[in-house]
Amino acid sequence: MYQLPLDLHRIEAPSLENFVVGRNGEVLAQMRLLREGATPAGAALIYLWGEPGCGKSHLLQALAGAAALLGPDAPAAAFSIDALEASTGTAIVAIDDCDRLDPERQERAFQLINHARSRPKTTVVAAGAQPPLALALRDDLRTRLGSGLVYRLQLLGDDEKAAVLNRVAAERGVAISSDVVPWLIAHTSRDIRALLRLFDALDRHAFESRRAITLPLLRELEAAGALIKSG
């Protein structure tokens, strides 16, 4: 079976520059201020929430780096006050998927947030699937997560996704028929980064096979099992 080659090595690491902003301009502006060392007005903690695919993890990784990201899959020992004490100057503590933290990590996250609050140049940026008070966590941690700035990240609408894909095609000088982008959005992934990876693979496949990116080509690839629907 032919498989459309998705070259994962070509995927850019999450950054604030490649975040697809949509209706999340205020959040992105706040993240840029944090990166520049500014302390958020009136809060040492920022909590981001929203549906899967809205960009929460992207922003946290852009700020802290994937290796430094805390969350349910990070070692419990990584939630370390000692590591925070060793930092100098501005520090960002990033905790992802707060809704999936186990009891031990909840306790450690609570202590870490409390300690970070006592440091004037430290900001905690946390994220979860629900607003703070709706999280199935211990009460004191829920309260802490809701004590700072809380932003809901909005998913891109289909029109916004289409605009991004059409802009990328235009920037690359790739001619695509008008029915390609709506078909991709309806039949493959709803996530913009997955769509961009798929478009990149389609672009290379079309170039190598000397074919245009058209709806008949997409249907051929779908029939061959080369397009994977990822939700």
Can you tell me about this structure?
It is a single chain. With 231 residues, the protein is an alpha/beta fold. It has two domains: 24-152, P-loop containing nucleotide triphosphate hydrolases (Rossmann fold); 158-224, Helicase, Ruva Protein, domain 3 (Orthogonal Bundle), CATH 1.10.8. 42% of the residues lie in helices and 9% in strands. It is built from nine helices and four strands, in the order H-E-H-H-E-H-E-H-E-H-H-H-H. It has helices at residues 25-35, 56-64, 81-86, 103-117, 139-145, 158-172, 180-187, 192-209, 215-223; strands at 45-49, 91-95, 122-128, 149-152. Strands 2-3-1-4 form a four-stranded parallel β-sheet, with helices on both faces. Strand 2 (91-95), helix 4 and strand 3 form a beta-alpha-beta unit. The chain is elongated. The two termini are 22 Å apart. Mean pLDDT is 86; it is low at 5-9.
- Percentage of helical residues? 40-55%
Number of domains: 2
Strand content: 5-15%
Give the strand tally.
4
CATH topology of the largest domain: Rossmann fold
Q: Residue-averaged pLDDT, rounded?
A: 86
Termini separation comes to: 22 Å
Total of DSSP H or I helical runs spanning 4+ residues: 9
- CATH top level of the largest domain? Alpha Beta
Rg, Cα atoms, Å: 20 Å
- Largest sheet data: 4 strands, parallel
Level-2 CATH architecture of the largest domain: 3-Layer(aba) Sandwich
Q: By helix and strand content, what is the structural category?
A: alpha/beta
